[in-house]
Each structure stands twice: as C-alpha cells, then as structure tokens.
Amino acid sequence: MAHRIDIADLHDGSTGGSARMHEGSQGGLDGASRESHARTIAGHDVLFCGSVDPSPRWRPGERLHHLFEDAADRFGGLAAVVTSDATLTYAELDRRANQVARHLIARGVAAGDRVGLLFDKTIETYVALVAALKAGATYVPLDPGLPAERIRYMLGDAKIRTIVSMASFSERLAAQDAAAVLLDTDRAEIDARSPDRLFAGEAGETDDPGCYVIYTSGTTGNPKGVLVEHPSICNFVRIAAARYGYRPGDRVYQGMTIAFDFSIEETWVPLMAGATLVPARAGGGLVGEELADFLHERRVTAMCCCPTLLSTIERDLPHLRLLMVGGEACPQNLVMRWSRRGRTILNTYGPTEATVTATVTELVPEKPVTIGIPMPTYSIVILDPAEPRTVARGELGEIGIAGIGVAAGYLNREELTAQKFIPDFVGIPNNASKRIYRTGDLGRINDAGEIEYLGRIDTQVKIRGYRIELVEIESVMMELPQIAQAAVSTFEPEPGLPELVGYYALKPGAGALSGGDILQALKRRLPAYMVPAYLEQLDAIPMSASNKADRKRLPKPTGPRCQPGGSGKVVAARTDNERLLVEAIAEILTVERVSIEDNFFDDLGANSLLMARFCARIRRNPGMESVSMRDIYANPTIARLAATFEESGAAAAVETAPEPFHTPSDFSYYACGAAQLLFYGAYSLFGLWVFDTGLEWTYAATGPVDLYVRSVAAAVAGFFGLTAVSILGKWLLVGRFSEERIPIWSARYFRFWAAKTLMRNAPVALFAGHPIFNVYLRLLGARIGRNTIVKTRFVPVATDLISIGDDTVLRKETILLGYRAQSNYIHTGRVSIGDRAFVGEASVLDIDTAMGNDTQLGHASSLQSGQRVPDGRRFHGSPAVETTADYVRVEAVPSTALRRGLSEVVQLAGLFALVIPAPIVALALWEQSSATAASGFWTSLPTVLVVSLVSFFGSIVTGLAGVWAVPRLARLFLKEGRTYSNYGLHAWLQGLTEKFSNSQFFNVLFGDASAIVHYMRFVGWNLNTVEQTGSNMGTNQKHDNPFCCEIGSGTMVSDGLSMINLEMSASSFRLCHTRIGDNNYLGNNIHYPPGGRTGANVLLGTKVMIPIDGPVQENVGLLGSPPFAIPRMVERDKSMLGAIPEDERLRRLAAKNRYNAVTAALFLATRWLLVFASLAVWQAALLTYDSFGVLALFVAGAVTSAGAVLWFTLMERASLGFGALKPQMVTIYDPYFWSHERHWKLSDWPHVQLFGGTPVKSLILQMMGVKVGRKVVDFGCSITDRSLTEVGDFANLNEGSVLQAHSLEEGVFKSDLIRMGAGCTLGPSAFVHYGVTLGDHVVIDTDAFLMKGEVVDAHTTWRGNPAKLFRRHGTPDGALGAAVYRAPEAVAPAWRIAAE
C-alpha cells in the first residue's frame, strides 16, 4: 500500500518541534479538548474535539520506536516493566531491545518485513515489540490461544517469514511455515550484541510506513488483517497519553493479549508517560477475586479492560485511580459501582481500523453512558448506511470516523477496503487520511454533543470485548456437509451477558450430526470466544424478503448450554456440598444435567467469566468463603472441588425441659392494674403538688431579681428532690435486687413495676452519659467505675445486679436492663462489664452476661444470656462471635476527676440558671395575661386560640432556625479527624449539635415524602445526586453530627437509619465522616459506622450489622449480624418497577407529591388542634385553680392524657377510613402506598408507648387496631402496622422490640399479617417481620431478627440475626415441641436466598 498521509495537510508539522510533542505528552491538553465542537461543513454535521490545536501530532519520518527512545531518554531510571521476578527500567528495556533488534537483523529480518510475535505474559513480550520496530519491521501479534489453522492462515496472508517467540511455544511453531527466533534459546547470542541504539541505516531503509497488523474477525470464514501505519499510531499515543492522564509512577495492568488492539492503550500509551507496565501472570487470564488480589498485591493504579471483566471484581481497589473501559458497551450500574472520589473512569470507543480509540468520555454516575466526543485530531460523522451522505444531528445512522488515525486498510482485501474506507466527501478539515471509515456501528449525536452508541447495523457483534463477524462462524458451520443452512445470533441468558447461539438446518436425507461434532469442527477453526454457547437445530432458518437470514425471527434457544464433552454417564451428587455445587453450576451454566465428574470447561462448556460468577456464588456458603478461581482451575469437577471443603452436617437443636410458665388469675391481673392506676394518679398528683408549691413560692417574689433567684432555687430543689424520691422509692419498694423470677401481675411484680417507673421518671434520667447519671446509678445500687460513660437507651432497672468497671464506655442506644420478661415472669440477672471495655451503639446485653477487661462488643450486636467475653477479646454480631475488628480507634485523652466534675457543674448551672427559669417566668406572664384578658373560660378561648397558633407555628419556625443555626455555629469549633475530650467545651457543643439537629417532629413532618431530601440537606447531610422517588427516606433517621453524613447518589433509605459519626473511648471522641455508597438500598433499623465496608449498589437488609473490616462489599445484598451476602434485588421487584415507563413514573411522582403535601397539612392541623385543646383544658384549670387548687391541675393532666389517647385513636381509625389495613404488594407509586404513609404520619404519637407494663397498654393497643389477647404485658414494643398485628394471650413484649408488618424493598412495598400465639415472648430489641406466624409459647430471643414469612412451631426458642431455631422446650404435659426441619449449615443460606 502506498503512503496515504497527506503531508501538506499537517500544518507545518516541524514548527512545533519536539518541544511541543513532549509538552503534549506530559502537560496534558487544553480544557477544550474535553468538550465537543459540532460544525456544519457544506451541509454536513461534523463532530470535532474542540481542541485548541487540531493538527496531527506527528512529524514526517517519525516512527513509533522513536517515541519510545525519547521516553527512555526522559524516564531512563524509572521501571518500565515489572513482573514477579524481574524489573526492566526504561533504559534497560531500550538497551535490551537494541540487542534483540540486531539479532533479528542477523537472522534475516529486513526493513519492511512483517514479523510475527507469539508471546504469553512475559517481560520479553515488550522487548520484542520494541525490537521488531527498531529492526524496521511491521509486527503482527499472534494470540497463543488461536487454533493452529488460523495462525497458519494469518502467516500466509501477511507473508510472515519470521516469528519471534519463546521456547515454550517451539512445538506449536514447528508446525508452521516460518522461521522461529526464540529469545530465551538465543539468549547468549543476544547478550553478546551491542546494547547501543542502532545507527542510521543499520536496519536498512524502507518506504513502508506500516507499524503493525492486527487481525480481526472476517466474513469469509477467515480473519482480516488491519494495517496501521506509523503516522497514525504516533499521533494516537501522543494524544492518548495526554488525554488519559497517565503519569510517571503509575502502575498499569497488562491483562490483554497483544493480538487485541485494546492492548495498544495499555502498553504503548503508558510508556509515553513514564508509567510502569505490570503484566499478568502467564497462563489463563485473571478474573474475579484472583484479578482483584493481583491488582491489590501489585498496587496497580491504572487498568484498561472490558466492562465484562471489570464486573467480575466484587470489591473496591483503593489504589486504582484510572480505569479505562472499552471493547463493548459499558453498563450504567458498573459506572455507579466503581465511581469513587479521586478515580477517573474513561469510556473509550474505536475500532482497530481507527487506531485503537477515536472517542472518549469520562464516566460519572449522574450522567448517562455515551462513547463521548472525538479524540483530538479525530472527527466523527453520522452516515446514511446505504449511501455516502450524512444524517442530521440527532438522527440514527452509521458512525463514521475521520482523521489521521484511520488505518491504511485491510491486507489483500482491496474491494473490502474500498467499501469500508470511503473518500472524504464532506471535506473535513485536518483529515490527513482524506477518508472516512464506516464502522458498521449504529449511533447518533445527542443534544449534549456526545455520541450515543446503539449497537451494530451489520452482522458483527462483541462478546466479552472480542469483535466477532457472525458470518465467519456461519461459514465454518456451512462447511459441514450435512448442514443446509446456518445462522448465528446472540442471546442473553442473563441481562448484560450475551452469548452466541448457532442455528442450523440439515439437508434432506443428511446423516446424523451431533452437537458435539459441530462443536469440534468449530473449535478446530475458531478461537474459543467464537464457539457458540448454544446450538439449536431448526427445520429451516427464517428468511427475510431479500432472502437473507432474518435474525430477528430466530427463536430463543430451547436447549441447554452446549456440553462439548463428557462420558455421558451422570454421577449424582452424594453429599450436601456436592448437591449445593451441582445446583449452583447448573444455574450459572443453564445446563440440564451435571455429573460430579464433568469437567467445568471441557464437558460443561464453561468459560472463565462464568466460573468467576460460580466462584462468587459458592463463596456465600459457610466453609466455602475462601474458594478462589485457582481452586476451581485446579479442581475442575464437582467431586474434586467438593473434596477440598470440610464437610459440615446439621447441628441438632437443643431439647430442654418444659419452659416454666405463669398463668395469672383474673384477680391478680385486675388488682395489679388497679394498683398501677392508683400509683400513676398518686405520683402524678405528688409531682403536680411539688410543681405547684414551687411555683407558688416562686411567684411570691417581690421583684424580677427575686423572681429569677427563686425560680433557680425551685429548679434545683425540684430536680434533686424528685430524683431523691425515685432513689428512696426504689429502696423502699424493692430493697436490693437479687437474681430471681417474679410472676407477672403479682404483688411482687407491682413493686418491681413501681420502682422501675420511679427510676425512669427521675429528672436525672435525662442525663444518660453524664457523670451525674453514674452517681444516680450508684445510689440505686449499681457498681459503676471511674471515668465510665453509660449512655443506655433505657435506665437500667435491676441496678444491684449491674457492675461496670473503670474507663468503660457504653455507646448511645445500648440496652442494659438487668431484667427480661419471659413466659409471664420477670427474670432478673447479673450483667458484669470489666475495666476499659467498649459496648457499641445499639448493642444489647441480656441478663447473665459478662465482659472482661479490655473487651469490645461491636455496634448493633448482642450478648445472649450465658455468653462471656474473655479478657482482651473483641466480639460482634448477634449472638456475638469473636472478631479481629477494632471498634475503639481513637486515642485516649487524659481526664481528671476535677475536669469531669467542673464540666458537669457548668452544664447543670446552665440548666438551672437559664433553661428552667425561662419557662417559669413565661408561665408567670401567661397567668398574668390570662387573668386580665378575660374573666371566663369561653371569653378567654380567642386568646387561647391565638396563643396556640403563635406558639405552635412559631415553635416550628424557631425550631427550624435552631436546627439550622446551632449545629453550624458549633461546627466552627468542631473539626473532623481531631480528637477531643469527652468533658469540656467541644463535648458540650457536640451534644448541642446532636440534640438540635435530630428533631423527631420535623422528621415525621417531612419524612416519607420528596421534602425529606431537602430537609436533610437543610440539616447538613450530603446527599449527592438524588434520584427523587417521593420516598427516599423515612421518618426516623438520626446522626451524631449532620455535617459528617454522606449518602451516595441514587441511594434510598427505608427508615430507622442511624449514622454513627463518632469514634469514642471512655475519655475522648473524634468526629468521622460516614459515607454510604451510591445506589444502595437500606432497610430498617441500621446503624452505619464510620469506615463501614460497603460500597456501591448494596442492599442493606433490616437490622444488618455493618462490617468495619474486610473487603468492601459491592453489588450484593447484606443481611444478618455478622452479615452475609444475599442477592442484590429479587426479579419480582425489578419487574414491578420496570413495568412503569419513565414518563408514567414521573407523572405518578408528581401526583404523590401533591398527595403528600395534603398529608403534611393534615399532620400540622391535627397537631395544632391537640395543642389548642390542651391549652384550653389548662386554661380551664387555671381559671378554677382558686377553688380547687392542685386538684384542678391534676384533672387537667388526666384529661389531656386521656384526650391525647382518644384523639390519636381517632386519627388511627380515620386515616384508614375507619377500616383496617390489608396485606399488599405494590410499588411506591401506587396510591395505596401513599395512603399507608398518611396513616403512619397521622397516627404517629408517643401515646402508644404510655402505660408500659400495665393492662391500660393493652387497652390502648386494642383501640388502635391491634388484636390483643388476654393479660398481655407490653413494656414498650413498637407496632408499626397495628391492624395487621395479632398478639395472643399472655404474650410478653419487651422493651425495644418491634413488630413490623411491612417492608419497603427497592421501591416495592410489601405488607402482611403478623400472628403471635398464646404465651409468646418477644425479647429486648427483638424484631419480627411481616408475614410471620408464631405458634404458642414461642420465644424470640434478645435482639433476634425473625425474617418475613417464617412459620414458627410452638414451644421453640429462636435466636440470632437472622433468627434460627435455638432450642425446643417441652410442653407442660412432657411432650416436646413440634419438630423443625433444619437444613445443614452449609446449605442454609442458599435455601434462605431461594425463599427470599
């Protein structure tokens, strides 16, 4: 072929000189090069890069190895290639290539020759590449995986007389008609040659501009060679090195065969920038976890790969800063998964015929995937596929590429070259090739000026990055004498995983032809990636009107994946592990039968990518977590692989004696209830008397100063006086708690309940986590060490049985009760925590548990009764298991008793001097105004109305101002990453931030609606790019510090998310940034810590424990504590959401927003009406106070309490249309779901938690719609969907437990009944999901999570997260509870996943 570059069109290529070339490769391109520039030229739309300098980056006479030599001069001492056993610097690579080039010349290679290169992953590959060019040759890379016949064709077509290779390929090369130069065999000769650069003329002279020839799939049954010349490749590596951003010190993974043109980007381009090449290990390509391990171990910073390969890596790689994907379409979810701050992801597009890459774009999650804009010196036009004309912008057409990068053409295919490389009829400026290459790809230029790739318009496809001509496979099939017709198409057994399908029809009377025979014929002629995964015999191939195979009418394959080998004998699985592996491989490969002796590759037709998925699948099973692709390659049958796993059988559930159960009499039940009501009345009356007496004394002041002084004195006296009453009451009612069993509803139970009520209602109970709270617990009988922080969710009750050592911290939301209600008894027991211990947020310590010195219990974990944590050990999970994770990662700060005392005194002084006196003075002013403004109740109502409006809506405005201002002022003094003392100004400011920015009222007002994202941003959360759904968050999210909270783009939160932003020790805290990845979905009650090891596209199940160590989890679901992997999203949920077109979704979202706005208005109106009614009642009490004194206040309190219960009972019923909830499964865009959200919002009020442990609580629940049995005791269970819940007789519901008859999963709302039998127990912090049925006398243990749909047999105990059968306990007549099937531990997760 003649020289095809127009030298006159290069705009004075010598003027810029080498200085400009070097500047371009290191300094990068102008910012404009990242923007497209569309121009109309003679009526044709042409897309340019927009670069300031559009001229080609090549000087006449320059060849690719000259650019390498220039790089070697600049980066001589830097590593050019690094393998596990060798390193070559740039200078060494240059010298070694000089020696090999001289050796090639001596062996007869002349300038202009074409030299074959046959190499695996070895350091000599790169030496040979440079050496061939230095010798003046054009190199032709050969893939070692190609069949011998295909290599033979390529050698003849390219007229290759010499192949450079290694001795390991000598046997294969012996069958070829070409001289072999084996670099390792000839090592001595090569080493003897001069390492200096070749002098001018040493390699001979040639006018052949060819640099390399790469063979791609052809339409005749043989591949076609694409010739790329030096001007094209020199230009490309310069612009690519600048555009991609490679830099010295980068380590670039070399995973592709050099016969794939994408390898140019990972080889020659980095060498121009001083980067280091890191070749993969020789042999099979790395995928999945093995690839991830390799990249991590070698600290690879940049990688070029196909999206399919990238999708096999399941964890993040922090060192990876540059990712280039190409060779096939890149899915959007892959972008979301791999996007990170500080990482660049480039999508490159370009056929071999356009010198590797013609367009590029940076991929970011918030932008749709396109193939971007032209590279500098390239131009793009969209052509009419049938004639030489362009189509208008926005219209579909064939992508055409122009510029210096257009290749010379196809070797020995002049007619095809003329057909595909057409003259530049547009007259594109700076098009040095004067031609346009027709790619055969369908595309258009969008409104943003970027190119959208929409597939192929001919018979060419891409499978795992390989470009394949379907006609080539059809030609080989047609060579079989029995086949009359053949057609090849693609099929996706799973979305995003295309496979080839070969269809054929036999000639009439043809002999038998098995699928195995066809496969063998194909494998002899074609590389493995071109052999169809499915073969389908048809009576006739469907044809179009033009008598061509109509691929659109080809049916989906009905048979299984091809199994090319095997003996035909099926050996069935014999063990649980074998059965699990058989099920997994059959599902992955979609094959009908699997013998445990079948080879995964030879017999079942698997490939490495499918086996990577198989490997990831079986890692979810206990005992198989460490399996690697290496294990699978070494043991490629089910039998051999299963033998490597240690077998584990089913663990039998413990069978115990009958559970003691107390059945109270009617008398004890009603007598206890009456006594509790009397106690409530007496205690309330006493409290009001204290309050009233204090006010009377305060208001007897003689002036403003005296009023203030008296209000401070009254505040101090009331605070400590009521606290003293609680302490004395505990000792008088109970004395010292001991380990015992108290029958519920008995006299002893009443005393227990009364003491508990007093202890919980002391004013000092509001100071959990403060030193004064420790003093309070000590006065109640607990043994609390020095410098210890106790921030429990509830005040501990059986305090005499609780011991906590020095320098220990119990994080917020911890549950430590000292008692548990079970089987109608109160069981009290000891809890012992040693010195320097740590208990994480929302963790639970059941009775009869102990933690030694220097121990840790992680977040959202629990110790079950009987568990012990030995000294120095760390545990997490529910029930807790040992771990190496460290939950105390902040250094201690010296803290003296004096500092702690002063800090507490200052805060209490602020409380007594400012906070409490303010409302006392305000109340005095209110009484004065009410006394003078009106003389009667009815005449005073207008004033009450105005005051209620002003106070209610004014408090909303004031509250929002406080939510915004207080944390921002505190932020001026609080910095992330800095360690502060737990006692002092910074701790006080952090406390204020937490209190002001966590508003339950505003969460409920704005939650479950589009407004919640705006409110959370107002609070301070970083939500990145929000994909508005109208239900992005619930009504109960919270945090430590809002400015340290980040939610990834596209992430949705169900409800109950707690962002942990503090790392704490007993003496110090540190603010930490907490981030949840992109496109996550979070279930309920999740506590997310800083450093949580979850990334993008993760489903976090309800009550999941977030790992803080190990690999980053991505593209999976996590469930349980400790967590395990589950599918990211069930197909049913996908299909429900996918059935809603985007325009319809947006229409429904707008309707939902209008509906939610009305709901918010109703919420405000109902709350204000309650405030108005309450103020009216208290106004009446004040007006009658002179006659009835404190009794008037007592009646007002009783009326407002009862009125609130009745009001919200009305809201509960009215919000359901005075009906009941029904089991449903709808999307969040269904009006039923909107009405359910309205029901939650209007009926949400703390009154549901009033009267815990009394018969009144059951009465309230019945009024709210719960079907409650007889003599149920409820200490504080959260029941979210009351009319879907049934609670049987004698049930015991402990504090912090949850009955949730719904879930919101990936935008699909599901609800169903919860049925609890008689005598059931729900332990502290236990959680029961929807669709659950509990038999009689079932115990759901502390912190257990019983998953949706479980049917639990009577007389059983379930423990863990997710809950599993723990024991069966006998019935009173001596019979054991019903048997429960337990699958072996090795397969339990798989069954769970199937059920889900």
From TrEMBL:
UniProtKB keywords: Membrane, Transmembrane, Transmembrane helix
TM annotation in the entry: 667-691, 711-733, 905-926, 946-966, 1155-1178, 1190-1210
InterPro entries hit by this protein: AA_adenyl_dom, ACP-like_sf, AMP-bd_C, AMP-bd_C_sf, AMP-binding_CS, AMP-dep_synth/lig_dom, ANL_N_sf, Pls/PosA_C
Region (Disordered): 11-35, 547-569
Residues annotated as domain Carrier: 572-649
Database matches in PANTHER family: FATTY ACID SYNTHASE (PTHR45527:SF1), NONRIBOSOMAL PEPTIDE SYNTHETASE (PTHR45527)
Record-given protein name: Amino acid adenylation domain-containing protein
Species assigned in the record: Rhodoplanes tepidamans
